[in-house]
Design goal:
The chain has 128 residues and is mostly helical. Helices cover 77% and strands 0% of the residues.
Length: 128
């Protein structure tokens, strides 16, 4: 009986996470979004909540690496990556994106990743 309850809870948890992810996916695909900064923060938080912190870290490192010259970054971000928390990495990327007018670029990094993850979830759901 306890195993069945545990399986039900796991299924419900995974179903709720998938629904949250799909809501996020629908929100970010709206082409007429004026203020992307708050949405970036929302995506970042939701990805962490959905246990996608590695993907979050990848997005941020990739964004920072692509713009390292603009950010006057002297060290390789992939070396620094393990020495800072995910929150520190996000704050650095977000603040640099704001000061260098790169919020749309950071937003598109997140949108592209969410789109890819969404396709991966659909493929996984079709084979399960």
């Amino acid at each position: 009986m306890m195993i069945n309850n545990t399986l039900i809870l796991i299924f419900m948890s995974s179903s709720l996470k998938r629904n949250k992810f799909l809501q996020l996916f629908q929100t970010i695909n709206n082409k007429h979004i004026k203020y992307r900064g708050p949405l970036i923060l929302r995506i970042y938080g939701l990805m962490n909540e959905l246990e996608l912190s590695n993907e979050n870290r990848y997005i941020l490192c990739n964004f920072i690496d692509q713009n390292s010259e603009k950010f006057n970054l002297r060290k390789d971000i992939y070396d620094l990556n393990n020495d800072v928390s995910l929150s520190q990495l996000f704050l650095f990327a977000y603040s640099k994106a704001r000061t260098n007018n790169l919020i749309p670029k950071l937003y598109s990094e997140y949108v592209n990743t969410v789109n890819s993850l969404s396709k991966k979830i659909d493929i996984h759901a079709n084979f399960s």
